[in-house]
Amino acid sequence: MTDEARQSAVERAWRELVDTARRTAAEGLVVGTSGNVSVRVGDLILVTPSGVPYDRLTPQDTVAVDLDGRQVLGDLRPTSELPLHLAVHRRTDALAVVHTHAVHATAVSTLVPELPPVHYMTAALGGPVRVAAYALYGTEELARNMLHALRDRTACLLQNHGTVTYGATLSEAYDRTAQLEWMCRLWLTASSVPGRTPTLLSEPQLAEAARRLHTYGQPPA
């Protein structure tokens, strides 16, 4: 890739990253400057900066680090959750990561060790979504706990904290975040009915859904 092509790719990725970060705020998945987003361009990881409102971000605010966490673009400090993002990019095939403090998902993280499979979209995330053990935000311990919960999954909950999802694109990572929050809300709603217990899907039912979801959508052009 030429320097010009690389710069163009970084500019496009930064615009999409900022749009995604703003969407998490607009759709109520974060409050203020909580949560963060990253996207990979070659050997660069673009990340939201620490403590800056998303609506103030401009192309001149681009922040990028390498896979060792060394800052290579920008003057603003990277998100405090950089260890979390780097862990996902190093240990999975992720090209994009979204971390939020979504209300229903965070509530579920305080109640159970994994989100019960109340809907077939559980299969789209690799299976029942686990809860990573609590650790202080921004720490390597939190990153390790998250990776443990992400085994064979594309999403997890962080106990008393929020959500992490990843995907091949920012759009895919965001959609998984939104789907996870919706399923958490669904389970909380169903389980709050006095005297009733939600029906859960079995492993064979989830496997059947996973096979069907594999061919969901339009065929490649």
Q: What is the topology?
A:
Blueprint (H helix, E strand, L loop, with lengths): L2 H24 L9 E6 L2 E4 L16 E2 L5 E3 L8 H10 L4 E5 L2 H7 L21 E2 L7 H10 L5 E4 L3 E6 L2 H22 L11 H12 L7
Helix pairs in contact: 2-4, 3-5
Q: How is this structure best described in words?
A:
The chain is of the alpha+beta class and 221 residues long. It has helices at residues 3-26, 82-91, 103-109, 140-149, 170-191, 203-214, and strands spanning 36-41, 44-47, 64-65, 71-73, 96-100, 131-132, 155-158, 162-167. Strands 4-3-2-1-5-8-7-6 form an eight-stranded mixed beta sheet, sandwiched between helices. The model has no long low-confidence stretch (mean pLDDT 95).
Task: Kindly list the characteristics that best describe this protein.
8-stranded mixed β-sheet; 8 strands; 221 residues; alpha+beta
